Amino acid sequence: MRDELVRLRREIHRHAELPFLEVATAALILRELEGLPVQIRTGAAAMTIDGVVDYPSVEQRAEAAAAAVAAGFDETTLTALAENGTAVVVDIPGARPGPTWALRFDIDGLPIVESTSPVHLPARAGFASQTGAMHACGHDGHTAIGLQLARQLVDGDFPGHVRMLFQPAEEGSRGAAAMIPAGVLDGVDRFLALHLGHSLPAGLAVGTGVGVQATTKFRVTFTGIEAHAAGAPQEGRNAVAAAATAILHILALPRSSKAATNANVGTIAGGSATNIVPSSCVITGEVRSDDGATCEDLLERVRGVIDGAARTWGVESELVVTASATTLHPDDVLVDEVVAVARRLFGDAGVRRTATMSASDDATILAREVQRAGGLATYVMVGGANEHPHHHPLFDIDEDCLVPAVRWLEEVIRSADDHSLHD
Amino acid sequence: MRDELVRLRREIHRHAELPFLEVATAALILRELEGLPVQIRTGAAAMTIDGVVDYPSVEQRAEAAAAAVAAGFDETTLTALAENGTAVVVDIPGARPGPTWALRFDIDGLPIVESTSPVHLPARAGFASQTGAMHACGHDGHTAIGLQLARQLVDGDFPGHVRMLFQPAEEGSRGAAAMIPAGVLDGVDRFLALHLGHSLPAGLAVGTGVGVQATTKFRVTFTGIEAHAAGAPQEGRNAVAAAATAILHILALPRSSKAATNANVGTIAGGSATNIVPSSCVITGEVRSDDGATCEDLLERVRGVIDGAARTWGVESELVVTASATTLHPDDVLVDEVVAVARRLFGDAGVRRTATMSASDDATILAREVQRAGGLATYVMVGGANEHPHHHPLFDIDEDCLVPAVRWLEEVIRSADDHSLHD
Amino acid sequence: MRDELVRLRREIHRHAELPFLEVATAALILRELEGLPVQIRTGAAAMTIDGVVDYPSVEQRAEAAAAAVAAGFDETTLTALAENGTAVVVDIPGARPGPTWALRFDIDGLPIVESTSPVHLPARAGFASQTGAMHACGHDGHTAIGLQLARQLVDGDFPGHVRMLFQPAEEGSRGAAAMIPAGVLDGVDRFLALHLGHSLPAGLAVGTGVGVQATTKFRVTFTGIEAHAAGAPQEGRNAVAAAATAILHILALPRSSKAATNANVGTIAGGSATNIVPSSCVITGEVRSDDGATCEDLLERVRGVIDGAARTWGVESELVVTASATTLHPDDVLVDEVVAVARRLFGDAGVRRTATMSASDDATILAREVQRAGGLATYVMVGGANEHPHHHPLFDIDEDCLVPAVRWLEEVIRSADDHSLHD
Amino acid sequence: MRDELVRLRREIHRHAELPFLEVATAALILRELEGLPVQIRTGAAAMTIDGVVDYPSVEQRAEAAAAAVAAGFDETTLTALAENGTAVVVDIPGARPGPTWALRFDIDGLPIVESTSPVHLPARAGFASQTGAMHACGHDGHTAIGLQLARQLVDGDFPGHVRMLFQPAEEGSRGAAAMIPAGVLDGVDRFLALHLGHSLPAGLAVGTGVGVQATTKFRVTFTGIEAHAAGAPQEGRNAVAAAATAILHILALPRSSKAATNANVGTIAGGSATNIVPSSCVITGEVRSDDGATCEDLLERVRGVIDGAARTWGVESELVVTASATTLHPDDVLVDEVVAVARRLFGDAGVRRTATMSASDDATILAREVQRAGGLATYVMVGGANEHPHHHPLFDIDEDCLVPAVRWLEEVIRSADDHSLHD
Hints:
- By secondary structure, the first copy, chain A, is α/β, with parallel strands linked by helices.
- The first copy, chain A, is built from twelve helices and 14 strands.
- In chain A, the strands form three sheets. Chain A has an eight-stranded mixed β-sheet, with helices on both faces. The first copy, chain A, has a four-stranded antiparallel β-sheet with strand order 9-11-7-12. Chain A has a two-stranded antiparallel sheet with strand order 8-10.
């Protein structure tokens, strides 16, 4: 199983793709599951494109599909994925009554140029990304684990029903929210998301992440008035300057003594020429907190900063929320269960009940939706022994983490019984 | 005459006083004019205190009077001046019909610590300021010139009528506006203000300054919410930070291709303790331009910056205009006259029709008021050979400029005839 | 005992004094202990003035003494305290062998104007501060508790030896460091500091604070070049602007995912006149973190910001560290002891082993010094039921917390035995 | 002649091209001069590509050539221009001895989207730009005037020799400096540059611009360290924030009382993703002054700001000067000559000796080079009656200005005689 998992994750790694453009990855998922006795949903049955902010354009999707064709994937499949969306939902029925599980595996990569250093395994072993994007957050492993888990479970020898959500666009927190309207959580009793890495020892099983942060992503457009920088500067209204003011003040938002208060402006683009007072500038950024109310307060303060910066420079501003995720409130009973299974498999030393995750994941939106309907949820982690932090050009997981992850999830599902059903 | 002028200006220099606190200086003026056949007005007959923003407190005025008493001036006089205001208006009637002149001489010093360097004449010759304030703008010379001119003219051998306005608080642009309501410009046909220095050769006569800048002084109070800096920073609203934002953005106001656009924040004070998010901060500043509309526009933009900074930090702000002066529009016919007189006295090489003055003077408010009523005005300058700029701890005038200034003004007044009256 | 504690703390509250100026407070301590069989040290035997940054001037101390005389305290005592320092060290020997305890009670107030609202007990009951300073951090209670505790213990019926450190200048973190060189910790086996308040129920006993933050206080002086704001702005180098830049960027220092990263600029003063480019500005501020290395890193980054701001504006800068405190590492064995005593006294519901304190206290410097010499330390807290946060004009403690605090400390000391001595 | 000038300028207007990419424009120039008895230099004989900062890439030039082919220009010509440069130098010998003239006509457009409003003649009359770039500075008129002037002068009926420099990349100030090393000024006695517009009445002839500003364009690259914005913000070094700091402080550079002090940051691009602390940011900007030394001082201060901003944020910075132009010092004798000719042609009312031009032009580099070698230079202007400022999407010239411009230049050249030669 290890060889197969390594083969899968390396091929996925090589074809890293950006959010909502995971056409090769989704095609690979479909290819690997071909012929198995599972039910597969794609397109509008797996996600709803309408309402996604900044969904890639037809051109971007066509370009992604062309690249995937060039890389050897099936053109017909790619065309459909590029047109209808890259989410894939796989249902596997169990042979006896039991809970309906939803397991989330995220499949997208990041806009990071992968390291070519020989110290970096993907570079050394020849499976570094060929696409410009990079799997610098372990989603290659997640996807491989999901595929192998499906193959293990097709024997049906487990109670209940398993649904695997291969989710696009976890990075940027837009994919989860797009899958809910397609009904992928209907009837779900238990929700699990899995994440690898976290600078924990390879294979260490963690019952739930704690400190998972709520986040809101935003884009602000500043619009001023263009003017010749020497001929009539007094007639200009400087949109780039307003953005600069906004950036410094977003970074200077008050800290809290009670919760994390992260704020970032990640990108900026503005202006047209060296000698023209710039009339346009766009920034994108985010706020995060491990406390939901604090995250909302941060967004309110960002709005104040944006208004203030615009007023200061006499320009117009418009803030659009582009994505969001929420905090995690795992259910103790489910955490107890997965921890108990892990202890049986790996011994006490191979398990922790909790570990801190100072990051966000829109799996929280799925978890909250399942909980809202009366189900249970947790967010399990498996150590990846990564030396470099997530989102780093040298990030990689120790492939020794893959088999334990599959074994753990498989055993959690096989060993569930009716008694543990919420009711 | 030179010795007397030097003696006068040195004594005045030694007793430099801050705006509206010129009690020793006014007492000296009264003392020097004692017994002369002139009419003198002080107190409410010379200026109106009501409406002056930030007029010194009773305590400040009592302190200034006490210092002047200690320096040997008459206590009764000082008490009256401290109570009723420090403006002195002197009327001298001419023996024959002619225009009514108003001549402005400003009498206040600056909050600058005078240099004690031996290269600085006042320090070397023992007449440096003993008060903490400093005559770093030549008003000591102006006052001496006015006093000597009064003595020259008491013979009455000139047409018309001369009124001398010994004006307090030119620095900060509050004194001129305070004198108008007292009626000191009633019936005035011609207005002259005199200024020494300007890095021009000693004694050079200039028919009018050009580029004199309109200015508005302002004070802004930011009010936030105090909080423990580590215990609850999220509950604070930082008034000092808002002031910092305002300062940087006032300095970054757009330049104009058409006019000077000066902006300054000169003072700041805020906060209470190192470990407390500061809830209060006060800044004072000014805008200036050689174009009146541009100056008004600058003030509007300052308001925008203040509002924006307050909004950015979630604090309250209040802007108060504390003083203002306007631009200068000298009357050609009067400039012609004074230039013609100067050429007769000093030859062409000793005269310029105009020189640039990149500064402000609230004499412009008096000039505009006289012009509004149909009179003529100009702002003459006499070179002071100052090596260091005005408002510098080493500023001083070459005393050779004093006699030419008196002779020029005297001759302008004596040689005026009815034909030059506007009508 | 309650009445006496209330009387003491109210009198202390009424005479709140600023750091190192606690002459009335120290005189009150001496007065209350007069005639008791204790050994008292003051002056150089209790603290070392040399090396304290910004120690109050002779004039400030004389003024404080004069105010205390006016309030009815003994003039001779006050003169000595104003001259030699306001620390008071009280030694009480026990009747049998045992550990030497040092107990820290801080005695200073804050530069906060106390609320006069009728909702505020000190205002309503007539014991609000009469001094301009305010006990807004509970030190009035600490001092009263220390005094009462001394009275309880003079019977000598306890093992070992008790030393009480009545410490000046806890606010600003300068007093503790000044006491160590006077030898006040020599031979100390166990260190306790006590703090009231923390928005915990009145009388709740907490075995140790956690999250106590290391802090460094600093003062930065920016020195530029003065210039007339309109006449020669290009010749100025703006010190206030550099301070503004520094402030915004200190507030925008990167947050950490691993530790608190507080930074504050609490005060600013700069500039001389509205129309002069300001050449001087002074700011004071602090950094804090619950992680010592992070606190050091913050200070390094502040230095980078100061250098950068100075370079940006072409001015000079000088940063002086004025005070510091460190993190707290309480000894479990001592925490166990004090918790056990508290449970005996108040029951389980009246005790917590730990509570978070998002603040700093230079008792940590004393604690670390005792630990360095092989002793044990903890920082106990007693709930004060304060509705408003510490350092707030409406802060006050519920006086019901005073008796439990005295009883707890007394019992901890009386019940210690040799077995618990570290060795 | 008017119809032909209008036809030419409209065709040029329609094909506006960006600096160094003026392949269609240069091809049009060559096409229009085909068959005339003039000597034409292109490629390395007209400009030196080496040393030009940010010269367009092979791909950009190929794209420009492809667009020009699509627009109907000759492919062979375009390929050569795209490969070797877009400068065109045209020599026309006169029939009798006389001065060698160099006349500069700039040919490039701006990255501005042209207005489609019906109030805008190019939109209304169907000759608006089809390229995305725009002739918003009148270079379409300049080029047409140059072409028509060449046709007029081919009769050789004038003293001396005329060399026309059709210069690329005036916008951005890189083209003039690139032409000098190719020897295009060798042997030149007199230099004229022509500029239309300036909000002056159509056809008004101006002997020389005054106030032409020296300028330096720069690009700054900030390089920090990427980090996850919530997972490890303390490990990031924020390049976008450093750029923001730099922008605000460049705009806040001190104003001068003696000269214009323009500073602009025109473009910014940085960062990679919303949730990543950005490690890279590039800004481009410029400084300008009508005083050369002030312009150099501004650049020094920009360097200080860049260093300071980088130090503040702990990032690296690199400033590259990408282009520059200098001030204009026209030779009175040549200005006298061109003014005299203009008065003969248009009468006194149609001529001004000088007009202010608050802008820059790298023709000043050519002028200075000719003057350095002993020649004379001026920069003539012809009013274009433009309602909107230069570089505005609605900028356009009144075509009535074209014929007077050609007639004036023609007559200046025809009427020169040996006596006016410098020697």
